[in-house]
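User: Show me a protein chain along with its predicted structure.
Assistant: Here is one chain, sequence first, then structure tokens.
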Amino acid sequence: MTNHSKKIVDSCSFFFCLILLMSAATDGSSCKGPCLQVSPHSGSMLGGADFTLLLHPDLQKADTVLCRFKGSVDTVGYVDGDGVGHCISPLLYETGWIPFELLINNVNKQRGKWLSVHHSKMDAAFKVTLVNATQWQYYGTPNTGGTLRMTWNSSLIRAESVDVELWGYEETGEPYSDSWVPGWQYLYSVGRAVPNNGAFSFVPSPAKDPHWRWEMGSIRVSPSSSTEGQSGVNALWSGAHALAWHLQQAFRDDSARWATDKCLSWDTAEEKLPDFLSEIPDCPCTLAQARADTGRYHTDYGCDIEKGSKCTYHPGAVHCVRAIQASPKYGAGQQCCYDSAGVQVLTGDSIGGSTPDRGHDWGAPPYVRPPRVPGLSHWRYDVLSFYYCCLWSDNCQYYFKHRPSSDCRAYRPPKAASVLGDPHFITFDGSTYTFNGRGEYQLLSSPDKGLFVQGRTGPVKLENGTLAKATQLTSVAMRENSSDIIEVRLSTDGSGVTHHPDTLQVLRNQEVLSFTEQSWMDLQDVFVFSGTPGNVTVMFASGAGVEVRARGVTMTTTILLPMEFANQTQGLLGRMNDEAGDDLVSSDGHIYDAGQSSSEELFGFGATWAIANESSLFTYDSAYLTDHYLHVSKHDPDFVPVFSPPEDPSDQLWSDMTRICFGDGASFCKYDTLVTGSLNTGNATISAVRTHMALANDLSPVVACGFLAAPARGEKQGSVYLEGSQVSFTCPSAHVLLGSPLRTCQDNGEWSGDITHCVSDNVEGIIVGCVMAAAALTTLLVAITLYNRKRKRARQEKQKGAVAFRQI
């Protein structure tokens, strides 16, 4: 049993601990029994990371070390001069926690787990960097060439000299079948026995048969002591890229023609593959929505406004996001791009428009089945073809035929609720109230959706060291269906008081996660992103997102729910149904009015949502936590907060407070300032309220009317398709515009006016002549018909007269 597990057993009831340990034991990515600690604990899914085995020091230099990943993928390790064991991470086709077994002298010693990271999400310090990547990927097209350069962190390769190798990637077999498999293959070395000084350059030559058929791949740098192309060795990889510099002589002779042939072949092949467009989500309508909807969309690292908007594949865009979840059947992805005005860019208007992906860039379980391989399937089906059709030749119409932009007519933004300050609540439908209970509570419960978010509140420490008669959020734990349990908490000391400002700690299934090596983690049915120590975003398969932010010694939590959760929520954050009147429903069904109920009544409401040990998602890994939360009532009945803090307008604090506490959140700001005696606390609270209000505003629904194309042979002015926007149309000389020259997006989501066409003057004359001829013909036919009827009646009258004469 690990020390961590022993602490749990020593400090909690046996029954409750058994639940926790059984939960960890049934997790395929956790260890059964003692879990081996390794350093570093993560690396590129392409393999090659040399990691240390943190064992007791009883290994000998002659001992054999082997790590067996997923029960079948072996890499040979070694024992260094200090008696420390090492293993090498293998080449994998998936991301997330990968279990492995450690064998010493062919005897199974321990089990561990390794975090396999998307190769493009690795920090630059842990991969081979292609200097001037544009030169690499256009090499061989007109006006290109010269020397190619690369760099790497030489300390990560344990060798004095290295080989620089080219590896090719392909996916073979029948698409979307069990026979469709991914594969890397060593092609050749571009440098042998190169000094391991962290840099290499070369002038490439066109590839010879059969190597030229590989059109995408990566550079690998590995010790020259190993065999060329040997797998399972210490190595660093570049990101996957189009091998323009490696292609055959025909590409260099006429790259546009070569690429056009490839584009047309891709177009033919794509026609035979299943349609995936119908199962991917629509894009957010605006940049503000895209950046706010963090439960369903995440920044595309290739086009990030926070990092200078270097949007290589989307010129004209300043920011792109990707749908976090892959589509259920085909593992496809959605990408949405926006311009500097915050408007979505569509491929009908620009080569830089939003494009969906047959292979989600981040992959999708079961990963090893293309096109679900993280990053690589996306390159194979969506990026390389973009080079063929758009970057190496002028045939984007073929690419956009199969990768058209999604507009946002079906997009519905999520709704947000927040817990902030000491603590205050803003529900999904906008009700606001304060609940200063001390304990563990159900912030959100959605049994039908399987989503549960729990909050722990703790004491507020005053500047003089005493504790205030108020509490604050100190930890949030969450789970959706069979996902990992994620807990995000403030870093506290042994007394439960925060001692590391602006810092959050993240736990997965009661074990602390480290984000020092990567900011993004693919976990069991949940993603976690932590770009800075004080910001954590948790994203579930349903599209629900939880944002946790540390500001000083306070914590704010915001939950975003898609509209599929309407009428499916309960707890302290209310019922999400656009009816504020029934937001606050106690666990026994009593309805409270946030605006009319007293603070004492709302305190009673909050107490009903205390959780039970049997349903707790929290970790109790210290004596303080077990004494104050596990072995006592989940709602502390002895803690009575200040409901109405004393007000003294003559006090300097009151005067200073009025300067910062105004507008939305003023009452929350005043309460926190007066209870804690701290302007900083009040300022943090009102800042959190304003942040929430800005988020809610960014997520306001927008009416969209959909893309309008220019008429054939005509032009249009305007590329915004939201309510109130106008698009105008013109026709060239010698043509006449039929239909509406100006159309407006109306509040019902429909365009005003009629579809526009451009017709030539001659065509119009022919049409008018035909219409006149048709009218004349019709008149003639009517006259003939009337004449014939008149003659018929005359004959009938004549016949009647003859009969009458004979009768006489």
